[in-house]
Specification:
This protein has 596 residues and is mostly beta strands. It has one domain (2-593). Helices cover 7% and strands 43% of the residues. It contains 6 helices and 48 strands. The strands form 11 sheets. The chain has a 10-stranded antiparallel beta sheet. A 5-stranded antiparallel beta sheet has the order 3-16-17-18-19. Strands 32, 33, 34, 35 and 36 form a 5-stranded antiparallel beta sheet that branches. Strand 45 (544-548) and strand 46 form a beta hairpin. The longest helix is centred in the N-terminal third of the chain and has 9 residues, at 41-49. The two termini are 17 Å apart. The relative contact order is 0.15. The model is unreliable at 3-108, 273-279, 282-288, 418-422 and 583-596 (pLDDT under 50).
């Protein structure tokens, strides 16, 4: 994992843009920290927990405009729940990550591309001339959204006006739905639209608009637009089933997270002590309040799960979660990891440090422990399946990943330095000359099988899983390898898309303009797509399109890859847009559940 230099949020290795704030991330290959540099859970959580709990949803929409469509993908998008929408800030548990590499395809029956040219939004389905969608686009803060059948596009044009128009009949004029819109969502058919305007939520059926919630700060919306959880500017949490009155769930709520069908909601509720109530320092109050974690089941009552607790990973379909709890002893800085099945909590680890990975299908988490009260203590590593713990018998692990089969485990171990002095060893582990040995094992019953060596002298602890049987990584000065086989030299970035079982590789980066060679591989053979590529993406069916021949104004030629004869689609293209409807119809793409 790496951290965004702007907001500090953790991101997958090789991310190009931060999915939380939109800031660009340096494109040099990332060297993951050595095991000794791992940060403890308490330090990581405190940064996230107190980050602007009541920032508006508009701030998140504005940040989203800066995201590149191919960013933040790698294999993380194969683990993402897909059934819900969210607006809000990073401290909300569920964060909208419309992953560009597949969301552009939009889940419709047709392949297409959305892109920007001359400051306006364009659409192409690769068959005829492109369609200019907007006439006066001033704000990219809310992504355009295309219906499931690919016939209609919704977008915000000048001055926050929300429009929709036909993509099949270019002669039809756009239809305006609302003014001063800061964000919006559509259902698959496009017959229903929920939008946010001046702090309120409205439902539009393409005929008339109805206000359904007011003074909204953060909210989670189901993809069919029938269910909404939201908090208002007083911190009150509500559940709304569209067509019925909103039900108040709790007060003083800052963070919340739902599972994929919104049946289960977890939220943090402040529980002030008498000392805090007497304090006139609002900032002090925010930091000193005790926070209780609650679970709400749709149609039921809220249940208190624990105090001073924060969810780790995601909310599962069954409603189960993992969460971390600080010690009740003020002099004890340890954090325990718990598993909660919706009824009772069980301690999984008493000296929890951080998690490396987790399954999105079943309650499985990979984590480390460290006894901070013991100066000589070393990290230990384990996998929890619900509350059953399986130890990983290895030292100095720098990275661990759980494959999509929920059984196979890959991990990178820091190689011991040859130097004898303690100072030299410290230098070795922190500099770029550190190497790693990559291992593979799998869960068998209540234990792990004997680990097998995948490769040695790997130059980074970062690696990318290609399903469960293949792993991509770098060694020998930025040379890409897969399962011990050399693939290509001078690699800079690579991304795996599960539906095509393909790794997309950027290599031979130009020092002059940052363009690169784009290639694909499934494990052995490397197939070059194009040279001098500035940006690229793929459709649902795996069609590749890219921008090349970029001039000094940042304008280039857009091509559709077609073997040795690429098809030119347009000129003077600056960058791609993405389809924000993102129904998760291919892969596991849509939304990512994050702890607060």
């Amino acid at each position: 994992m790496i951290k965004c230099p702007n907001c500090g949020q953790e991101l997958p290795d090789q991310t190009k843009f931060c999915r939380f704030c939109g800031s660009g991330i340096a494109q040099a290959p990332v060297q993951a920290p050595a095991y000794a540099e791992q940060t403890n859970y308490y330090a990581e959580q405190s940064d996230n927990y107190y980050a602007e709990p009541y920032a508006t949803a508009d701030a998140n929409n504005a940040a989203a405009a800066q995201k590149s469509p191919v960013d933040s993908i790698k294999e993380i998008f194969n683990k993402i729940p897909k059934k819900f929408l969210i607006a809000g800030v990073a401290v909300i548990l569920v964060l909208a990550i419309i992953i560009g590499i597949v969301s552009i395809a939009g889940g419709g029956k047709d392949d297409f591309v959305l892109y920007y040219k001359d400051g306006e939004l364009y659409f192409s389905d690769f068959s005829g001339d492109p369609i200019q969608v907007t006439d006066d686009l001033e704000d990219r803060s809310a992504s355009p959204k295309i219906t499931e059948d690919g016939d209609t596009i919704f977008y915000i044009d000048e001055d926050g006006k929300l429009f929709y128009r036909s993509l099949k009949n270019e002669k039809k004029d756009p239809v305006k739905l609302a003014n001063d819109v800061s964000g919006f969502y559509i259902n698959d058919s496009g017959k229903k639209v929920i939008y946010r305007s001046e702090g309120n939520l409205y439902l539009h059926d393409l005929k008339q608009s109805e206000k359904i919630a007011k003074d909204v700060v953060n909210y989670i919306i189901s993809l069919d637009l029938k269910k909404i959880y939201f908090t208002n500017d007083e911190g009150d949490l509500y559940y709304l089933k569209v067509g019925k009155d909103a039900e108040k769930i709790a007060s003083d709520v800052a963070e919340m997270s739902a599972n994929e069908n919104l049946k289960y909601l977890y939220y943090a509720k402040s529980s002030e002590s008498e000392e805090d109530e007497d304090s006139e320092d609002e900032e002090y109050d925010d930091y000193s309040d005790s926070v209780d974690l609650y679970m709400y089941k749709e149609g039921g009552e809220s249940v208190k799960v624990d105090s001073d607790a924060s969810p780790v990973g995601m909310v599962y379909k069954s409603g189960a979660i993992y969460y971390a709890k600080e010690s009740d002893d003020e002099d004890d800085y340890s954090v325990s990891l718990y598993y909660y099945d919706g009824k009772a909590s069980v301690v999984v680890a008493e000296n929890y440090s951080t998690y490396y990975d987790y399954s999105s299908d079943k309650p499985i988490i990979v984590y480390s422990e460290l006894d901070y009260s013991d100066e000589d203590a070393e990290y230990t590593y384990a996998i929890a399946k619900e509350d059953k713990v399986i130890a990983i018998n290895a030292e100095d692990i720098a990275n661990i990943k759980l494959a999509e089969d929920n059984k196979t485990i890959y991990y990178a171990v820091l190689d011991k330095a040859e130097e004898d002095s303690e100072e030299e060893e410290e230098d070795y582990s922190s500099e770029s000359n550190a190497t790693y040995t990559l291992y593979k094992t799998s869960i068998s019953g209540s234990s792990l099988k004997e680990a097998k060596t995948v490769d040695t002298e790997v130059e980074s602890s970062s690696f990318t899983l290609m399903g469960s049987s293949k792993v991509a990584y770098e060694k020998d000065d930025n040379t890409l390898f897969i399962n011990g086989e050399k693939i290509v030299d001078d690699v800079s970035n690579y991304y795996y898309y599960a539906d095509t079982k393909t790794l997309y590789v950027e290599s031979d980066v130009s020092e002059k303009d940052g363009t690169y060679t784009l290639s694909t591989t499934k494990g052995k053979k490397i197939d070059k797509i194009a040279d001098d590529v500035a940006d690229w993406n793929i459709t649902e069916a795996g069609k590749i399109y890219y921008i090349t021949d970029v001039n000094d104004n940042g304008e280039g030629t857009l091509y559709l890859a077609k073997g040795k004869n690429p098809k030119q689609l347009d000129e003077d293209v600056t960058d791609f847009a993405y389809n924000g409807r993102s129904d998760g119809g291919y892969g596991e793409v849509g939304y990512y559940t994050y702890y607060w």
